[in-house]
């Protein structure tokens, strides 16, 4: 893959790291097909709680997986700053369209994909959103994937691309 292709592929990536599964369903299994994993990242020392469909994507304690949060599945860069509301609406409508034969996107490289919305961002210690940026403390970002929840906690510098109200894709592969 050329450097230009790699830059295009990562242009829409907001966060990426490799996680170790530390625990699954620590408070007991509440739903038949859903599990909650507890993970720790290798590179950025992030803590992860993630609800996922354990029937279609089984994970076990000590598994390692790559997790990506992306603003778009497109392999072409999508700039949030230059994008009009009309373009954003069109992109969101087209995000679920059938792809043409031979057309590729970011999901082709991953095994499990979810689409959700960032609904909360706050200081991990106090729950205060304003304190986190000024003090350099850890922050927590909360995302809902149609009721399957995720909490990603770590240094705000690694999570500053995630904004409350944004729709994002979660992509996982072992």
UniProtKB/TrEMBL annotation:
Comp. bias regions, Basic and acidic residues: 78-101
Keywords from the named record: Nucleus
Main location: nucleus
GO molecular function, one term: RNA-directed RNA polymerase activity
Classification via InterPro entries: NA-bd_OB-fold, RPABC3
Gene Ontology CC annotations of this record: RNA polymerase I complex; RNA polymerase II, core complex; RNA polymerase III complex
Keyword Nucleus: yes
Location of the protein in the cell: Nucleus
Listed SMART domains: RPOL8c (SM00658)
Pfam family, one: RNA_pol_Rpb8
GO BP term, example: termination of RNA polymerase III transcription
Keyword Zinc-finger: no
Top-level taxonomic group: Eukaryota
Residue numbers spanned by region Disordered: 77-101
Protein family membership: Belongs to the eukaryotic RPB8 RNA polymerase subunit family.
Name listed for the protein in its UniProt record: RNA polymerase
Record lineage: Eukaryota, Fungi, Fungi incertae sedis, Mucoromycota, Mucoromycotina
């Amino acid at each position: 893959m050329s450097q230009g292709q790699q830059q295009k592929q990562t242009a829409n990536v907001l966060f990426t790291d490799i996680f170790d599964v530390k625990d699954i369903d620590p408070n007991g299994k509440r739903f038949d097909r859903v599990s909650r994993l507890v993970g720790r990242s290798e590179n950025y020392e992030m803590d992860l709680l993630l609800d996922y469909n354990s029937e279609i994507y089984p994970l076990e304690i000590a598994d390692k997986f790559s997790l990506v949060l992306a603003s778009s599945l497109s392999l072409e860069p999508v700039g949030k700053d230059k994008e009009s509301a009309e373009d954003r609406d069109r992109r969101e409508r087209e995000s679920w369209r059938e792809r043409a034969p031979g057309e590729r996107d970011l999901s082709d490289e991953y095994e499990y994909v979810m689409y959700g919305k960032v609904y909360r961002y706050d200081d991990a210690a106090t729950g205060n959103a304003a304190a986190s940026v000024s003090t350099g403390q850890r922050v927590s970002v909360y995302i809902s994937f149609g009721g399957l929840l995720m909490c990603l906690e770590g240094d705000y510098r690694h999570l500053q691309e995630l904004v409350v109200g944004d729709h994002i894709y979660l992509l996982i592969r072992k």
